[in-house]
Write a structure and sequence with these properties.
This protein has about 290 residues and is α/β, with parallel strands linked by helices. Helices cover about 30% and strands about 20% of the residues.
Amino acid sequence: MPDARIRMLVIDIDGTLLTPEGYITAPTLAAVRATQQAGIVVTLATARRYSNTANIASELGLDIPLILYDGALIVQHPHKTILSTYPLKAEVGQQAVELLVRHKLQPVVHPAKGIEEEIWTGPADFDNPWVAVYFTTFPEQVRRMPFENLCTGHPDPIRVVAFAPEEIIRTLLAEVSDLDCAWTITRRGNYGSAELAIMNPTCSKASGVIELARYSAIPLVQVMAVGDNNNDIEMLQTVGWGVAMGQASEVVKAAARAITASNREDGIALAIERYALRSPATADSNSLNRLTWL
């Protein structure tokens, strides 16, 4: 177990902070608040946008920059101040749109419009059940336009996204890798399918954590991050204390230094108590048997 004291805690939202049903349990909320009371900086690192992250940050009582869009945007919450943004070149974004259209997948573009958020997409021809759920969740933000104008003629967007089964998305990866971009696959997102995000080549949750740790003058060795999905891998490898959730894939677990219980078993609370707070009560508890230091 590392000797360095934890000074920053970075938490993924979906599959980590939230239960499978999408809420924060009382033990998890208590653990996060105890962490704050101990003087540890707590923030979120998520693929989510600000509009569906702000309420969660407020529930936790955070007054801190949040890492959004997998590191493409860092926003000071609750002041809604953008500290940094790393957009995708419009030319590359349009290439990504054309690639998705060739494969009959509906491209979703998140334009860089400051703190205001919109969802740009093409005609409904390539809508599938999963992207339809996404559009229904944010109906006031959706703008449809011709595919050829989704990125061309506009400022550089934040990212281009596709919703589809994982096996379909993986057939695109050779072509996606030829673009001047970074990409991540969320194996199963909030809308019932895998999600492909195409972003600025410098972006990842890890890049966001590095920037925020530097901003807070905290060495990475004193940062603990907890996550469960593919887009958490680099973050878990970058920090001093990377913790994988119990339901994570073996690839994600292999990237971490510790494995906690699942998000159905308050795994984030157990990890906080054991590693960030080093609680003697937890150390003596049978619940510790569900955590493994690698």
